[in-house]
């Protein structure tokens, strides 16, 4: 990740504070594996930004690296010049997240030589950015040293915010097949998504299945994918013929994603695949999600968008689940379920199987490819992004809880979640017309998602 760095300065404060700040932040970036883009000490006074001419120089530097820069860090080793910071960001034309840091004063060094006044300067910088209409983020403490653990965690969280924003503004999602007729719940607006930089490419399922049917078990690509699938998960009782069907479809899906530069997919499953091709696509979806190419069933485009956002925030795979069942009479627990497409990270006991519920209508022999497995205790961030077409907006809810090891005797992909005030969360979901699908991620990243989706994407967010 590459960040632009603006070091604010005000000339009647000690120059040594600016000089030291530049050295400190370079060291912090090296420690965290980040790349800084900042002025050299020969380009402006100590590499800081105060005057309009210095703002022009810093903005020109940022423009030259605009394709690399995902966010901007503003350092205030002293009060800083608020106009210099604001003008740099305005002139650069960057539309990226901005984090404002300010140094603390040392009570034993409040003399003219060492006094910073950054506490006050940060308020002035934020005031100017607000006037300019520039969005920005704040550190968890008003002032903190770059060398401190608390600031470095803030910086890591900010980098995650930058990943989410950059990813969502350019994401390409493949909608493969038509939405199943019985699933009005997953309807969405392509136009609203496109206005937010999210591109949806549509594909006819019959064309995908037609390409898969032209392949045979003797084709080199099919053999290669079959080996990969067998290495990914035990086949259990899945017949060899079904495994070949799964591998053929996997070949085509991979080719389509590469040809169209897709970051994620939403695939028609219920029930066309089973009736017209004879297997479930769950295993392929699981493999894609595990490899950070999230895939959602039932052509749930905003579901896979939610998976992608959570993946960007955490750096780990997401899973699309149903808010499915109560857990006995515990008001803060529920059962999360899907017939079988969760990433392997959630399923230590993963096995390729079939889908018993779906099999009652299409024949169990046509549902091989679904996964079976229980998710153990782990952290939980959950959430959902949705287009609200009557309002013409994108909205979301997010929150955190825990996945537990509570007993659960059933089939498919399954988990037990414990969520504080779960009953009021369900009321919010129902009252605001959200889908029955939700996304889970093994992390604690709700604050990162809230900052990215609400502050920078401008979406309506409820954090439970």
UniProtKB/TrEMBL annotation:
One of its GO terms (molecular function) is isomerase activity. Residues 336-462 form the L-fucose isomerase C-terminal domain. SUPFAM superfamilies: FucI/AraA N-terminal and middle domains. It comes from the Bacteria. Keywords: Carbohydrate metabolism, Isomerase. InterPro entries: Fuc_isomerase_C (IPR015888), Fucose_isomerase_N/cen_sf (IPR009015). This is L-fucose/L-arabinose isomerase family protein.
